[in-house]
């Protein structure tokens, strides 16, 4: 099923970074930070686990949310499964997969702790296995924890979320956060580091690294060495990452990779010839070429039908475009435009509703005011009587 | 130490396939047809093709110059147009007719709409339609194959033996007396490149394997035309022969592969492409049956080109409902 999903086959290029040991860059001036642990007998229960995660200040690298918050939110819901996410579906990036391969037992242990604390029997590790990287051997089981391989085309991340059926609620925790949780439980260490892949066609010594949070990009590049002069440096994956121009930019927890690329040539200018490659590739079933044409013409009315708001920003359409156009950037522009207008629409609707509500209220107020006046005309004497009664009392 | 770093939108890797390759595929697929035309009609066929290609390329670059102020040498889409046009004409056509057709195709069909990628009609079909109105007597007069044609600028028509083409025979209610093998190989009077059904189909296989075209479009086109012929036969022959005569005798196969699949004018969704091919085939067969000219497919292509955006619109409206329903389902649960 997954093999026939829409998307693109990408050469993964995770080697040699993935098979090399994870290098630790340690800040010598700052000693390892420890926290005061809660009293735990045996395995920690939910409350203790949340306390540990909170005190260790663990942040999930998937979405940048604190792990304690995620665990607490999960405990309020009926969950089906706890899932460790190591789906590195973008080429060059292997910071999660590397952690699972080199520190798999710790990740599995932490996953078990989470599942026990949340009282869920189903837990597994998700890993992405593409058809193009047959050399990478993923274990099928780490310490009795099942590793589910996700096959098929890029993007796989949204497919991972649909695992076990879309109707089952599940807690997805990044593999790096789980490793930090393990360290916090066993060694009481506060999270001061993050895992980053340093790769790209300009990096001499591509590898996965464990860095102190806030390390400037320059230091990382210096450590790994540049084989070529890069023309762009990317924070994040090769398909969705952002370029930076300032090399002093600090690396934070959600940064999964630092990639340095040298462009082959200047982009050749070519019009969209309408080949339909982006249409066949789009995993959301959109028509990027038509959206692109609407945006280029600056004509947004009539483009609602193309559902640009469903875009998941995977960058597939730009990747396949033979005319080398920035299709996904234009689709994103349309998405932003429509989201903004949608909010405007909602605001307008609210205003209308409010007006209507006020209209009702106004009507009632007026009606009652009028009724009071009319009633007042008749009941002047009676009210006078009432006053008399009061006085008598 | 570092160059100026650029701020670029994601993604940062590309597949590296280029539009020029896309057009080169079409050119490569057209070359075997010229080999066949050379075998049947001699070097004149190649000269016609050369004139078409060179004039189209030059006028295409001029077009670029008018629109952008600079020439984009990697844009060889005009060459495809220039190579397609002579193939739809008889080998005895004067050179100036090919020249007129390509110039019209580039300057009147492509340039006013904004150049490559913006034209509304297929340039080759429109160029053919233009010259068929101007020189119908020359355009639908087909020489007998396997006889070398003179290379003169203007051919003395008394020198060549002309034969009646299959579609002309069929429209007058006669059954052509041609061997089936010859028929599939294209050894009968007709336009110089559209009669070789076998070669054409192998070109189609190449284009499908290269993912330049989708199999569903030519398949629907041929199937609908065949069905049309089966339902409303013109001559009294066995059904399979009738389908063979109608499809191979006219430019249905050529049009279904090279004109209908023009990436610029075709709709973009699978469903709309199939509908496009379906209605295109019906128009083509109506032109074959009731049209004044022996070749009706280019006219049908022009008509169906008009409806391409409309088909996309309606398909998109349908798809929107499906997409929204799916999104709702995933969000609610």
Number of self-contained structural domains of chain B: 1
Task: Supply Rg of chain B.
Answer: 22 Å
CATH topology of the domain at 2-18 and 32-191 in chain A: Rossmann fold
The biggest beta sheet of chain B is recorded as: 2 strands, antiparallel
Quick one: how many beta strands of chain A? 11
Spatial ordering of strands, largest sheet of chain B: 1-2
Tally of helical runs of chain B: 14
Which range does the strand content of chain B fall in?
Answer: under 5%
**Count of strand segments of chain B:** 2
What is the helix/strand order of chain B? HHHHHHEEHHHHHHHH
Unreliable segments of 5+ consecutive residues of chain B: none
Mean pLDDT of chain B: 89
Oligomer: heterodimer
Mean pLDDT of chain A: 83
Name of the CATH class of the domain at 2-18 and 32-191 in chain A: Alpha Beta
CATH topology type of chain B? Ammonium transporter fold
Task: Summarize the biggest pleated sheet of chain A.
Answer: 6 strands, mixed
Tell me what the CATH architecture of chain B is.
Orthogonal Bundle
Please tell me how large the radius of gyration of chain A is.
Answer: 29 Å
Biggest interface reads: A-B, 57 and 48 residues
Helix coverage percent of chain A: 25-40%
Describe the structure.
The complex is a heterodimer of chains A (393) and B (333). By secondary structure, chain A is α/β, with parallel strands linked by helices. Helices cover 39% and strands 13% of the residues of chain A. Chain A is built from twelve helices and eleven strands. Chain A has a six-stranded mixed β-sheet, sandwiched between helices. Chain A has a five-stranded mixed β-sheet with strand order 4-5-3-2-6. In chain A, a hairpin with a 2-residue loop joins strand 4 and strand 5. The longest helix of chain A has 52 residues, at 327-378. Chain A starts with 22 loop residues before the first strand and ends with a helix. Residues 382-393 of chain A have low confidence and may be disordered. Chain B has one domain (19-328): Ammonium transporter fold (Orthogonal Bundle), CATH 1.10.3430. Chain B has helices at residues 19-41, 44-68, 77-87, 95-110, 123-134, 136-139, 166-171, 180-185, 197-209, 216-231, 239-249, 252-259, 270-290, 297-332; strands at residues 142-143, 162-163. In chain B, strands 1-2 form a two-stranded antiparallel sheet. Classes of the chains: A alpha/beta (393), B mainly alpha (333). Chains A and B meet through strand 9, strand 10 and helix 10 of A and helix 1 and helix 14 of B.
